[in-house]
Amino acid sequence: MRNILFSTALSLSLATAPLLTGPAIAQQRIQPGGTVQGDLSRGDDQLDSGEFIDVYEVQGRAGQSLSVTMSSGDFDTYLMIRGPGDFQEDNDDSGEDGTNSALDVRLPADGIYRITATSYEPGESGRYSLSLTGGTVAQNTGGGRAPQNAGGGALQPGRTISGALAQGDRRLTAGEFADDWELQVRRGETYAISLDSSDFDAYLMVRGPGGLSEDNDDDPGQRGGRNSRVTFTAAADGVVNVSATSFGAGETGRYQIMAEQGGRAYGNNGRPQPPTHQPPSRQADGTLQVGQSVNGALGQGDRQLTSGEYVNTYTLRGRRGQQLDLRLSSSAFDPYLMIQGPGLAEANDDDPDGDRSRDSRLLVTLPQDGDYQVSATSYEPGEQGAYRLSANTSDGRAPQGRPRQDSYVENRGQRQDVRGGSIQIGSTVGGALQAGDEQLNSGEYVDTFTFTGRRGERIAAELTSSAFDAYLILTTPSGEQIDNDDGEDGTNSRLDTVLQEDGEYSVGVTSFAAGETGSYRFSVTPSQGSPRQALVQGGQRVFAIMVGVSDYGGAAGDLPYTDEDAEKLAETLQRGGVLNPSSVVLTNADATVTGVRRAFQQVAREAGPDDMFLFFFSGHGTQEDTQASSQEPDGRMESIVLRDGEISDVEMGQLFDGLDTRLSLLVLDACFSGGFARNVVDRPGVMGLFSSEEDLTSAVADKFEAGGYLSHFLRAGLAGAGDVDGDGMVTAGELATYLRRQFVAEVENVEAETMEGQRNYQNLVIDRGGVQVDDVVLRLASNSFNAGSR
User: Fold this and answer.
1) At what angle do helices 709-716 and 732-746 cross, to 10 degrees?
2) How far is CA 154 from CA 60, 187, 259, in A?
3) How far does the chain reach from its first CA to its final CA, in angstroms?
4) 779 by DSSP, 3-state: which?
5) At 29, phi and psi to the nearest 5?
6) The pLDDT value given to residue 160
7) What pLDDT was estimated at residue 712?
8) 394-403: buried (b, 16+ CB within 10 Å) or exposed (e) per residue?
9) Edge-to-edge strand order for the sheet containing 414-417?
10) What is the pTM of this model?
11) Residue 616 — pLDDT band, cuts 50, 70, 90?
């Protein structure tokens, strides 16, 4: 059984709407109360990562609750829902163990929602059942005043509602009781929600459309108070979910909750912020760059906030995910610091780690790319004087009052404390999540480590713990976030990826559920990829038969460059250090039927289960009538034309039966070559690349001085151009993607025709069969992690 959330590969493909390898999604309507019987199979649309999908649409309303279940006895199911306001939910497994999926959601806005039925692993197929139930919309149960222990309901701006936390209420993971309320919001409007209680320490959690996620313990406008208040500006129309709860587990008692529209936002330490919709009276006073400090002064002539404080504002260009440490210091006045921008509005009076100084500090993570306004002002109206403002990359230090990140690096059996969370690739770290650590918005404790990486490095980040369900969050220098919940062994987490840029990476070590604590071990090490990939050795592991015929000796029309295709491919593989000396090149008069059969016997004898086999042919292809069957549904048999005869698709399949290799690749650059797929790519570990569909001709690539387009692009792909992520391996998925892109760019308008003269265009045919997208075709000799020296 897998825990809910993603495997790494799947999460990258499902981050927004489903990504397809084929045409647009075929969508079907489904209504609440409906059940459909479906089938995932070849011919369905696919995600980038290879999973077949069926997509269903449902018309949803704001506040509507829906339950979706998917079950199958044939494969491990996976469910996704996407909708308005960037709404997205996913589920792998429901229940304790098993492979069925279920999602219970409350819709944030009116609109069309897409339910995607798919599988956990690429290529899985079979029948499934999908059910949709629910359809209720939350109503106001309070009538303006809720009874004690009402358990939640609908909030209306300007109306105070009474409630109570008590036994029987919903409980959070950490043990706090919670009542759930809903507030209908409009995009661009500002709202404030207050939770007051004399019986317990109030705590508010607010979640909503457009990525809204806010938590608050103490109302920043009531210094020293225990009431809670959250102010936000709605990023999208829809329903905001408000959880009224307590700071401590098990607290109970009466409370009052109220929502206000047009409320005034407060900063972290009780200082009112100017309304977010208030435009500046003039342009910013300057620019502020990360790594830069500016000196300024507040005084007469500066702009003033509505409450009377002078203010200087600087524009900072930021990136999504960028972590910043903003500081404002002055000996002349009590500094107050604010930042506003896309999806962000925060303020600070006194640095919590400033040893009781009055300087101001903000540690923020930017939610979007764009321009942010950093404002330097004072705590009291009319204060004046010089100041210093700086913006730097965050060092991850926790505020005073929290325990410092408890972690160490193991070095030859000795423990050395981690300074500032900075580690090197190859390090193993020990540590512990504990109460008081930094927390994510959703309540999980987190330790953060940074390391410097180079583009093309492949690393494995691994987190293990027997105390909690491990979860890893990797953030790249440009702010992209990659998450992983479970590795291959249940609740431990492993993230294997190729670094796509130079710079500093950060890794958040955290838990799957909020509030989990305990010790852990964490490492970032060089990787040779997945366990399947790590077993693939480098060096001269490609055993190839490369055949090209230009001179047909009068038996057929001669072709330009096709003999050179075979010779150049051999040179490319040999120059790359991957071609085994047992490989064979046959051209022109040597490219006979007997010669090819003999080469198969010779190479098959030499190649073993750790090796890759390649049969390449460039030359004529032909068709002839035969009896229609499952292997030849069009009633025609395809053959490649050698110097003295032909080898049919049926015989080619028999020749491939004699191989015992890790992966076998059939590449045919010939007319009608796509017809070989059905006869050869029907056994494990065989992948086929064909220059044309089975009823169409292939053209000579004169512009590249090559016998065929596939021959030309294949050489480049196996020489390294197909290594899209730069990790020193060319995988089946990378090679297929590279070839498809080249054909789209260069062969899109190349005409082809059938035996009867029907005109069309030449199209590449790729059939991976049972070969997975991450299966390694070959390791490049330039790969620094080459395993060929074992």
Assistant:
1) 130
2) 18, 18, 10
3) 36
4) strand
5) -85, 145
6) 80
7) 96
8) bebbbeeebe
9) 414-417, 407-411, 427-433, 518-526, 458-464, 493-498
10) 0.47
11) very high
